[in-house]
Design goal:
Blueprint lengths: L1 H16 L3 E3 L1 H11 L1 H16 L2 H4 L4 E18 L5 E23 L3 H67 L5 H35 L9 E3 L12 H11 L1 H21 L5 E14 L7 E14 L7 H68 L4 H35 L9
Parallel strand pairs: 1-4
Antiparallel strand pairs: 2-3, 3-5, 5-6
């Protein structure tokens, strides 16, 4: 027993001497939203889609280029004249230098520019939804782990109580053995049960430690081993949720549905892009530049040109190998597929909601039942320990009463945690998971 106590002191001592940080759920979420790497990555991705939403990226604005160049050639020239004479010039060098501005502007391309801008708007909104989806899943996971940490602390408390009860039983068994009331077998069995409870307690410390590490990892804590004291010590859940309200909010706010709806919009825009080929296009181009030509032969030594050039180009594709018709047909099929995917997602969410709701109501019933069982088991144990002290009850019967109490406490905390998980899932599917933070 002394050896066991020394081991527990070594295990608990770091928790005593180290600075403990008190966290409630909101603080955990707030810390995670600031530091979690997945959140930071998805926010950077959203910033890219925000940056892409410009009229220039859509094609509304012209392009303006500055260019300059130099070219030259060296030739041997032989000219045969009409009067029979021949002129020869070897090593003739001609050079050209130029610099200028070139402007190109697509004025109309069958409404494709307007479609591109609307596509960028849809992609920007999808970027926001993807960020929201990541944040919602993060809050769901973090909330689940937060209450799992509370659950493991409750289990630890229950096991400590079991060890304390077993220790009291050993004390009584040893006293009864010394006065010759009980046999050595009863005393040895009491010690075996005490060691068994102590072993379970030691293992529970490991489970609790793993949950704490997971919680710190989600919050991207600098010190992954930092000790956490939760502001909550029990698992509370909302028993007043309404299925019809959750269903309506799911249809209006579920992120998967909203993303599916955006995909439908993108498919419609793809059709409009394909239909833009049914129209002609109009482009404008202009340039302003300087050109210098240097001649090595002839009557002109060099020539300088400075001026403006401009023009319009109108075009229309008369035949594209039936590809225009093929693209539009495929685009309409994609619209149909996106609609089917939307309906499939709705049906899947409806099935998930039904299962979650059943589990939620079922676990509420189990929680209420296990509360009664814990009360009954505790009263039974108190009667049993009094009878054991009086010698009216065998040690094995006391052990059964103790195990019944521990098992009832275990079932209760498991039912409470499962109910909380169902509540979290219902809040997630209905788009209300942010309420844990707000």
């Amino acid at each position: 027993m002394k050896k066991y106590t020394s081991f527990l002191l070594l295990l608990i001592l770091p928790s005593i001497v180290s600075a403990q940080v008190v966290f409630d759920l909101k603080r955990c979420i707030e810390t995670g939203l600031q530091q979690n790497y997945d959140i930071r990555i998805i926010r950077n991705a959203q910033e890219i889609t925000d940056n892409n939403l410009t009229i220039g990226n859509a094609g509304y604005l012209p392009t303006l280029d500055l260019n300059a160049g130099y070219s030259g050639n060296r030739n041997n020239i032989k000219q045969n004249l009409a009067d029979g004479e021949t002129n020869k010039n070897n090593g003739v060098i001609n050079q050209t230098l130029n610099a200028g501005l070139a402007l190109n502007w697509t004025i109309f391309d069958g409404f494709n520019i307007q479609t591109n801008y609307k596509r960028l708007q849809e992609l920007q909104k999808m970027g926001e939804l993807n960020t929201r989806l990541t944040i919602e899943n993060f809050i769901s996971d973090l909330t689940s782990e937060y209450y799992n940490y509370i659950q493991q602390n409750i289990r630890l408390k229950n096991l400590k109580s079991a060890v304390k009860l077993s220790k009291e039983r050993v004390r009584i068994a040893e006293a009864r053995y010394e006065i010759g009331v009980d046999s050595r077998l009863d005393m040895q069995q009491a010690k075996v049960d005490f060691n068994s409870d102590s072993s379970r307690l030691i293992k529970q410390y490991e489970v609790l430690y793993a949950s704490r590490i997971s919680l710190n990892q989600m919050m991207a804590a600098q010190n992954i081993d930092q000790l956490i004291v939760t502001a909550d010590s029990v698992i509370l859940f909302d028993e007043t949720l309404n299925r019809d309200v959750i269903w309506q909010r799911m249809l209006a706010s579920n992120t998967f549905l909203l993303l599916s709806d955006r995909n439908r919009n993108l498919s419609r825009l793809d059709l409009r892009t394909a239909q833009s080929e049914n129209y002609p296009y109009l482009k404008f181009n202009a340039g302003y530049g300087y050109t210098r030509n240097i001649y090595n032969t002839g009557t002109i030594d060099n020539q300088n040109t400075l001026g403006l050039s401009y023009g319009f180009t109108v075009g229309f594709n008369l035949f594209s190998g039936f590809n225009r018709k093929r693209k539009q047909k495929n685009a309409r099929i994609e619209i149909e597929n996106r609609q089917l995917e939307y309906e499939q997602t709705t049906l899947s969410l409806k099935a998930d909601l039904s299962n979650m709701w059943m589990a939620y109501r079922n676990n509420i019933g189990l929680t209420n039942l296990e509360k009664e069982n814990v009360t009954t088991a505790r009263e039974t144990y108190e009667i049993a320990i009094e009878r054991y002290k009086l010698g009216d009850l065998a040690g094995i019967q006391l052990r059964e009463a103790q195990n019944s109490l521990l098992e009832a406490e275990e079932r209760l905390v498991q039912a409470e945690y499962n109910t909380k998980l169902c509540e979290i899932s219902l809040m997630l599917i209905s788009g209300q998971i942010l309420s844990y933070y707000e």
